[in-house]
Design brief:
126 residues, mainly beta, two-stranded antiparallel sheet
Length: 126
């Protein structure tokens, strides 16, 4: 395996760092902070936000998008980690205002894969 991922924290009502990143009417911003650690022998190269999703109590999935919350810096859009390297950053997601987010997922190597392989899931407490 090339990497390991962990969720550091989730903000269910995040504020965007720029107004242009605000959630549209009827939606709110959720932000998840991840740490990615390169554990393989080769350089890990992947964008962070396309591999991130929020899952609600009905099983509906909401994709991540580029941008930063006021809580911290976003995950690099061009994440390049040498072996042993580490990256920590936030990914933001638009979700319906009343959605109960029950999990977040992170898929490594998300661009070359579409089958969900190498996806971590973290269930959130109610």
């Amino acid at each position: 395996m090339c990497c390991s991922a962990s969720v550091r924290q989730v903000a269910h009502n995040a504020e965007p760092s720029l107004e242009a990143l605000a959630a549209p009417d009827g939606q709110r911003l959720v932000a998840a902070e991840f740490t990615i650690l390169s554990t393989g022998d080769a350089t890990y190269d992947d964008p962070g936000d396309p591999g991130t999703k929020a899952v609600d109590s009905a099983g509906k999935v909401y994709p991540g998008k580029p941008g930063s919350p006021t809580a911290g810096e976003s995950m690099d859009l061009a994440m390049i980690l040498q072996p042993g390297g580490r990256a920590t950053g936030w990914v933001i997601l638009n979700v319906p205002q009343n959605a109960k987010i029950t999990a977040v997922t992170y898929q490594m190597d998300s661009l070359p894969q579409t089958n969900g392989e190498h996806t971590g899931r973290w269930n959130l407490r109610a």
